[in-house]
Specification:
The chain is α+β, with helices and mostly antiparallel strands. The chain has three domains: 1-37; 39-52 and 167-248, Translation Initiation Factor IF3, CATH 3.30.110; 54-166, Protein of unknown function (DUF541), domain 2 (Alpha-Beta Plaits, 2-Layer Sandwich). Helices cover 39% and strands 36% of the residues. It contains five helices and ten strands, in the order αββαβββααββαβββ. The protein has helices at 2-37, 68-88, 138-146, 149-152, 170-195; strands at 39-51, 54-65, 96-98, 102-111, 117-135, 158-160, 164-166, 200-208, 212-215, 234-247. The strands form two sheets. Strands 2, 3, 4, 5, 6 and 7 form a six-stranded antiparallel beta sheet that branches. Strands 1, 8, 9 and 10 form a four-stranded antiparallel beta sheet that branches. A hairpin with a 5-residue loop joins strand 4 and strand 5 (117-135). The radius of gyration is 35 Å and the shape is elongated.
Amino acid sequence: MQIDRLTKIVSTTILGVSIIAACYVFMNGYKQRNNTENAIHVTGMGTKDFDSDLIVWRGSFSKMNFDLPAASASLDADKNNIKNYLVSKGVNESEIVFSAVDIQKQFDDVRNGNGDVVSSVFVGYILSQSVTIESQDVNRIEQISREVSELINTGVEFYSEAPEFYYTKLAELKQQMVKEATEDARMRAEKIAEASGSELGNLKNAEMGIFQIVGQNSNEDYSWGGTFNTGSRRKTASITMQLEFEID
């Protein structure tokens, strides 16, 4: 009898604990569900048009000669002509950087009557060098890059690349845009809460989206990793902020 009574007590205790545990799980799940439902998810955007304040312009030149010293002398003459031309146009010498000289041996294939290559013949050395102009005088350097044919007409075989445009205050710009995107998201959340008859509560979560820079009035596509346009002088930057608010 005592064993049966003890068994009944244990069973009753286990049942009571089970009921309490089940209630806890149910209430906790209900609370979590309500926490998820009683929230607003919004996305705000910040955009800014700006002009680049730094230009990088690159070009290259080369010479070929069977005699290495002669090729080197010709290349050095072109280098001086390029430097003098740029300085005459108002470019500071400190903004002009020449790379090291690259030397390559050039060979021509010798073929037989069937068109097969049977040997190669050394025909000379090709010496090449590049120059980079980096300046905050964007107007001047951009104009020079358009008039580079003047240098080519002097006999210098100069291969010009398209200028690249950058902005040196990008970190400050990004901070301003994050603030703008956050304010835009909050305003959207307030309107949604007002329309639903609720009050906007505390901020629960905030995530910053990808920073994008495209040319102004362009049809460039945004990318998941972020677009960073360097070909346009005038650009448009944008960033998104995803916010989650509690609602009462």
